[in-house]
Amino acid sequence: MKLNVFLTLLLAFVVQITSAQTKTISGTVTDESGPLPGVSVVIKGTATGAETNFNGNYVISASVGDVLMISYVGMTTKEITIGNSSLINVSMAADSNILDEIVVTALGIKREKKTLGYSVQEVSGDDINHAKEQSFINSLAGRVAGLDVKKSNSLGGSTNVILRGSNSFSGNNQALFVVDGIPVDNSNYNSSTQTSGSGGYDYGNAASDINPEDIESISILKGATASALYGSNAANGVILITTKKGKKTRGLGITISNTTVFSTVDKNTFTTYQNEYGAGYGAFYGDDGTSYFHYYDVNGDGIPDLLVPTGEDASFGVPYNPNLSV
Fold first, then answer.
1. pLDDT in the model for residue 118
2. Positive or negative torsion for Cα 216, 103, 40, 55
3. pTM, whole model, 2 decimals?
4. Which residue, 2, 55, 96, 124, is the most exposed by fewest CB within 10 angstroms?
5. In 10 A of CB 228, how many CB atoms?
């Protein structure tokens, strides 16, 4: 009887020693895009932890029964109880509850919004695709504080984007556009006559060519601190665009998008022109300055003809007379 009790106690002691024995746990942490670097792997209730490397790999010493807490900004935290296996691979999913708190800063780095010391505002790609305009830039109007969007009324015309007011009277005040880390010059090559609307055609600017369907998110970096990494070109702020990336899914994924706009002309908005009086400012023409017309021999018959003062920009001339040849 005493021998059986002794053996039972001995077996329990051996089991306790075995369960408390530490071992090396390793694995890879990934998401839908691939390996995740910088993921925190901590033994729950302790300060013992590790961090994944560039390839998403980690190594940590733990015991059977310990709970690993795997956490990453913007991802749902996972808790995994260690068993007999020494290899634990983890696949993480985005946390939909805190996605609004994560913003893309300079060079595509994702940060928690509350940890930033400067102003950043984010607009999702879905927001600008609800009601599409000629340019996705026009869709930003009214969505971002301090963003002034001046759009052209012509088809394909350029859009002027100014953040927090103009900094220069004569220079370029446009915000810098950065698409997946590549700066895009949003200036145009319109001449002075095109700019003033007196002649020529507005051919638009480069940022308007970006397909809004390709945009995942837009971060607006407003302050000098936020845009410092992009140099002096970003002195007027940065519109940081992150495009959608391909991802592995089960089956065949197809997305179809279509936008159709119908327009009609409202003739009531047309300018109304009078058809009662001819060109000129009054009876101030002719040799004596009292006629509504100039006198000039147009057909060469030796008889002066009546010539309308077409060089004038007013229509205060003589009333139209079907019996008068001019």
1. 65
2. positive
3. 0.48
4. 2
5. 15
Residue 58 is given by DSSP the state E
**Residue type at 19?**
S
Check if the beta carbon of residue 93 is closer than 8 Å to that of residue 103.
no
Q: What is the DSSP letter of 86?
A: S
What's the CA gap between 48 and 69, in Å, rounded? 11
Contacts of 265 (CB under 8 A, 6+ apart): none
Strand (E) or helix (H) holding 25: strand 22-31
Residue labelled with tokens 């310990």: 66
Separation between Cα atoms, residue 178 and residue 109, nearest integer Å: 13
Q: Which long-range contacts (CB under 8 A, 24 or more apart) does 208-211 make?
A: 208/134, 208/135, 208/136, 208/137, 208/156, 208/158, 208/159, 210/136, 210/179, 210/241
Which tokens sit at 269? Answer: 């908005």
For residue 308, which of 287, 324, 292, 322 has the smallest C-alpha distance?
A: 292
Q: Give the amino acid at 299.
A: N
305: tokens are: 């003809």
Q: Concatenated DSSP letters for 201-263? A: -----GGGGS-GGGEEEEEEE-SHHHHGGGGGGGTT-EEEEEE------SS------------
- Please tell me the predicted confidence (pLDDT) of residue 17: 47
| Residues of the chain falling short of pLDDT 70 | 1-21, 96-119, 131, 153, 168-171, 195-198, 223, 225-227
Supply the pLDDT for residue 89.
92
DSSP state of 325: -
Tens digits of residue pLDDT in 122-150: 788 877 777 677 777 888 887 888 888 87
